[in-house]
Structures are given as C-alpha cells and as structure tokens.
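U., I forgot to send this yesterday:
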Amino acid sequence: MSNKKRLYISVLDQISNLIRSGEFPIDSRLPTERELAERFNVSRPTIREAIIALEAKGEVEARAGSGVYVRQNRSIIDDFTNGISAFELLEARVLLEGEAAALAARMISPDELGELKQALDVIKLEGVEDDSASGADRQFHSIIAKATHNQVLTKVIALLWDLQENLDHINRAHRSVCANEDREMRIADHINIFDAIAYNDTGAARNAMRSHFSDLLKSMHDASELQAVEEAKRKIQEIRQRFPISELSS
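Result:
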C-alpha cells in the first residue's frame, strides 16, 4: 500500500485515540480540515480521507453546513458481555447484511455506487499488497448499509461492526480468520456483491452477501479447529513433561 494510504491510516488512528481519550468529546465539533492538517502535519486531502474512514466506522458524523462531529457512544457496546460468541455475531451479520444488500440493490444512488466502487478498489489493492489496515472492508459494508436508506439498519450494522472491533475475544477470532482467509476469494466475493448491487438485482445481491459470509464462516471453523488442535497439543506436551517416561526407566 502506498505511503499516502498509510499516512491517512495513521491520522485516522490518532484522531480515534483523541476521541477515546476525551480530548474530542462526544457531540463536539472536530477542528477544521486546515487545523487538523496543521496539527498532524499532513495535507488536507489526507485529513479528508481519514474523516471519511472515521465516518464509515461511526465515530464521527458530517453535518451539512456545520462541520464534523464526534458521535460514537460506547455505552451500548459496554452493555454487551463476553457471552456473545464470534459465531453468534457472524450469524447476526448474515441475517441483517444479506437483506441490507438486497435493499441497497433497489435503493442505491449513483453517488453511493461510486463510493462503493472506490471502497472495492481499495479492497483489491489490499489483496495485492497484503495490508488490511485501512478499514476498506468496513467502509464497503457501511456504504451498502447506508444505501438502504434505512437508519435502523444502518445503525444496527454499525453496532455489529463496533462489537466485532471492540470485544477482545471476537476481535481475536476475526483476526485469526483474516490471517487464514483466501484473499482471492475475498476479493471475488466483494466483486460479486458490487456487481449484483450495480445491476439492481436484489436476489443476486442477497445471495452474494450470504455467500461471502459462508466463506467467512468456513474460515472461522478452520481457525477454531486449528486453535483446538494446538491447545490439545499444548496440554499433551504439559502431561509429557510432568510425567516423563524417563523417570520410570531410570
């Protein structure tokens, strides 16, 4: 990934940390692009890219004629406990995002389709350069959710992403899946979703999204199986060390 791309990711992380620290409080307006560019010593287009990504993550909200405001409220996330499993979260995403893709295929605007194409292009680049840090995957799915023009769907899907990123055990499971994921298949899945939505084919969009999650579920099963095998090996090794055969033959 180019240095320019990495730069906006760095700025994104810094702004996100300032939001979490309270320096940029909830409901406060962020400094202007010019002020942020001067603060982080980057160009205004870099700031703009970082803001777009923060908006896709649900951390900020652009208000026409007013500016960009901090909007993330973690109280809902904090109400969830570690009782939620990664498989349950994925199942919820299958049910919601499959229907969101179908609705987006009918409701998406030309501008939103253009945004979706841009996010897809970044995903393709990540697949080549093996760098998924930019959050393009979340942005791709967030644009689809927004394209439903249903605020409830948009906010619930954003919440599911927040849970995936902020509940440690789910985040670890997701990262293990990404590490073992077939990148060519991942890119193909997103292309199929985009094509179905671009052709306004609701059934194909639903099926493409569900197929994508089917691939994710397979990767999660494989990762869970590998983890279980490694844990079993570790326990067996502990038993061998605790009760060595050499002690009996000496």
